[in-house]
């Protein structure tokens, strides 16, 4: 019963925000003061009625001796019977009426109220406030219409089953999930349609910069001497990801893939600079992203060929393999320079639009440089995680031939690499697939426009944490600093043993 009361309260809350907006604008125009508390109490009358009715229903029905004749032991298949709702009683009828008013009646009332607020905005509000409020009202309208779409069919089928006595498993099992669906969508709509919340999505890239700064310090100062090439690869990966996080924080771009050519807007500090400079920074951040993905993939390959050469007692040449893995990065860099040179925007300082950001690029996807650059990004986005996981499975087979201690250490490091490969698989692949879908169909989705950059930035935040945890010397350094687990002397002994094993088995070829 409590979950029904809370549902009524949630629906009432959304409707009251609409009314509050309307009454605020109306009082400003007529120079009147409004009573917020009185309006608040009036709107929450259905919630109070539902609460009182629910209390009466629970007290009255639980005291009924009819309940005592049933066995309440839970049944794994059919669940446990928790209530018998007598809908012909006054409390149940009042409670059901409150639910119907808030789920079906309120969304219908909200639509004409939205039109009235919209008319007030056109005639009496400044352009900047108009854009922000319109965006907010769109979100509120979606939040009220969406429950109507979900609840109306669900409750319609519910009443049909009540009146006819029909047994519908769809109604029994899907009524609660359907009514719960708007609660999942609402926070996303609020974040997208409230401008200050939407603008605060990107700055988590600043946290990535701090984490990568700590990791770079540990790679330089706390890496064993035996790491050699591995130290260089870790340092290169961390620096490229740090650079990527800085560029993302500086640009904070929004890619409108529904337009042709594709429009790119900046909401970060970059919008205060020359638009041509911002265009260059945007293309550079794509190149750095390709380089970071290639670096993680090459670390997998380096581990694999190191073990393979140790088993076959052969020396390997790393340099030419390194160059081959970075061909997409080099190609993306050359293509980005060509794109910026051939497709420059106006170099004058533009007027900044606080709501829509600064347009920094128009990407013409039908040109050869843009198409090839898109192919390089797609190659590293989709292929790198898959190739890394395949190599990871081959490395796991190779380490069974090593000593148990070395096998454990390498397995721990390998787990970190696998996580670094899986995160892009879950973050990059869905978002870029959605991006390419919008490119091909011309569909516009705010989720794709505003969430592409934050979700792409998410692995950049996770990677330094994964590296610091799964590389034993770095983990022991953190433990010794924060007094976790063993003492610093024990950690130093473990570090020395780790360095000795790695130097003997893993990196002797380099």
UniProtKB/TrEMBL annotation:
Subcellular localization: Membrane
Source domain of life: Eukaryota
UniProt entry tagged with the keyword Membrane: yes
TM ranges: 6-29, 41-59, 93-114, 135-160, 232-251, 279-302, 323-342, 371-391, 412-431, 451-472
Assigned keywords, A-Z: Membrane, Transmembrane, Transmembrane helix
Membrane topology note: Multi-pass membrane protein
InterPro entries: 7TM_GPCR_serpentine_rcpt_Srd, Nematode_rcpt-like_delta
Pfam families reported in the protein's UniProt record: 7TM_GPCR_Srd
GO cellular component: membrane
Family the entry assigns: Belongs to the nematode receptor-like protein srd family.
Protein name listed in UniProt: Uncharacterized protein
């Amino acid at each position: 019963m409590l979950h029904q009361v809370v549902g009524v309260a949630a629906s009432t809350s959304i409707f009251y925000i609409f009314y509050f907006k309307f009454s605020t604008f109306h009082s400003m125009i007529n120079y009147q003061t409004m009573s917020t508390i009185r309006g608040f109490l009036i709107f929450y009358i259905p919630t109070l009625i539902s609460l009182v009715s629910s209390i009466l229903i629970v007290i009255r029905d639980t005291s009924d001796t009819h309940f005592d004749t049933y066995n309440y032991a839970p049944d794994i298949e059919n669940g446990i019977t928790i209530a018998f709702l007598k809908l012909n009683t006054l409390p149940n009828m009042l409670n059901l009426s409150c639910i119907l008013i808030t789920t079906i009646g309120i969304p219908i009332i909200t639509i004409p109220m939205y039109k009235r607020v919209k008319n007030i905005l056109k005639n009496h509000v400044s352009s900047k406030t108009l854009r922000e409020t319109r965006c907010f009202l769109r979100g509120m309208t979606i939040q009220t219409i969406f429950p109507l779409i979900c609840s109306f069919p669900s409750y319609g089928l519910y009443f049909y089953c009540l009146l006819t006595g029909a047994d519908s498993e769809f109604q029994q099992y899907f009524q609660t999930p359907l009514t719960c669906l708007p609660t999942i969508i609402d926070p996303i709509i609020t974040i997208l349609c409230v401008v200050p919340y939407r603008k605060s999505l990107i700055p988590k890239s600043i946290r990535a910069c701090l984490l990568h700064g700590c990791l770079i310090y540990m790679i330089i100062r706390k890496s064993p001497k035996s790491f050699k090439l591995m130290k260089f690869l870790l340092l290169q990966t961390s620096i490229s990801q740090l650079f990527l996080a800085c560029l993302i924080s500086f640009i904070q771009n929004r890619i409108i893939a529904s337009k042709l050519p594709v429009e790119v807007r900046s909401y970060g500090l970059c919008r205060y600079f020359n638009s041509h400079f911002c265009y260059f920074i945007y293309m550079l951040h794509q190149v750095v992203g390709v380089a970071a993905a290639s670096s993680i993939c090459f670390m997998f390959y380096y581990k694999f060929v190191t073990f393979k050469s140790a088993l076959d007692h052969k020396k390997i040449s790393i340099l030419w393999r390194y160059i081959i893995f970075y061909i997409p990065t080099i190609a993306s860099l050359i293509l980005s320079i060509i794109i910026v040179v051939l497709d420059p925007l106006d170099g004058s300082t533009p007027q900044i639009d606080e709501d829509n950001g600064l347009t920094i690029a128009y990407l013409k996807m039908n040109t050869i440089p843009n198409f090839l650059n898109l192919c390089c990004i797609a190659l590293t986005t989709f292929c790198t995680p898959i190739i890394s996981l395949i190599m990871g499975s081959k490395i796991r087979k190779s380490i069974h031939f090593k000593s148990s201690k070395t096998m454990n250490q390498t397995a721990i490091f390998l787990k970190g690499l696998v996580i670094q490969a899986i995160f892009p698989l879950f973050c990059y692949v869905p978002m870029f697939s959605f991006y390419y879908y919008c490119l091909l169909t011309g569909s516009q989705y705010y989720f794709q426009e505003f969430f592409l950059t934050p979700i792409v930035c998410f692995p950049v935040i996770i990677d330094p944490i994964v590296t610091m945890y799964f590389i034993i010397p770095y983990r022991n350094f953190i433990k010794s600093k924060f007094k976790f687990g063993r003492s610093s002397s024990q950690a130093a002994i473990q570090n020395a043993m780790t360095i000795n094993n790695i130097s003997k088995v893993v990196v002797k070829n380099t």
